[in-house]
Design a protein that fits this description.
Blueprint (H helix, E strand, L loop, with lengths): L5 E6 L5 H8 L11 E2 L2 E2 L5 H10 L1 E5 L10 H5 L1 H5 L6 H13 L15 H13 L5 E5 L7 H16 L3 E5 L11 E6 L2 E4 L5
């Protein structure tokens, strides 16, 4: 995966798509081989260094948004700062609002997750992933819990962000979404096979 790529990983259920993503994002360690990021072998990083990498350079979104139901949209977006014990300042709050604006949730900063639609909740999760300006976004079935229209809108949003320079690796069982990517990888029995460039 090169900078600026949008890689789509498809395959049957149980083929190893999510495991592949979790290894690349350092949530899991590979049994063999190694992973490089910016020319550095990160496979042998300590857990502390991996955590720092995930806090500063990598971000993840999932099929289920994992929002805190008692926090507002803006507060959910700010969670990465709270998890890294960094104080929330006016600047970081403005950053959270800007990220919510970017995903189309302007004027919904103070809404609780239960007051948002499923698509809006997923947009909050995307804003949370973007708040610390990651270099790579890992998305594991981000449309799997959404209807087709809402899922299409989420993929269009990711494609727009990719066009602005964000590198994305997205796992999906929806092969139609491969058209949003510039590289297509198919998983078969735990083996990644890169296909021709997605159209």
């Amino acid at each position: 995966m090169d900078r600026g790529d949008f890689v789509c990983v498809t395959g049957r259920s149980g083929s190893g798509k999510s495991t592949f993503l979790n290894i690349l994002s350092t949530l899991l360690s590979p049994d063999e081989g190694y992973i490089t990021f910016d020319g550095v072998n990160i496979t042998c990083f300590s857990e502390k260094k991996r955590n720092r990498l995930r806090q500063n350079d990598f971000a993840m979104i999932f099929q289920f948004h994992h929002l805190m139901p008692y926090l507002t949209a803006a507060e959910n977006v700010l969670l990465p700062y709270l998890n890294s014990w960094k104080p929330v300042t006016k600047s970081t709050l403005n950053r959270a609002h800007a990220c919510l604006d970017r995903v189309g949730l302007k004027d919904k900063y103070d809404r609780l997750p239960g007051q948002l639609s499923g698509g809006e909740q997923q947009r909050v999760a995307i804003a949370r992933a973007l708040v610390k300006s990651p270099q790579v976004l890992f998305a594991d079935e981000p449309t799997g819990n959404l209807d087709k229209k809402t899922g299409d809108a989420i993929v269009q949003l990711l494609s727009k962000m990719n066009g602005e320079g964000l590198s994305i690796l997205m796992v999906t069982h929806e092969t139609a979404y491969a058209s949003a990517s510039n590289r297509l990888v198919t998983m078969e029995d735990g083996v990644a096979k890169e296909q021709s460039q997605a159209l």
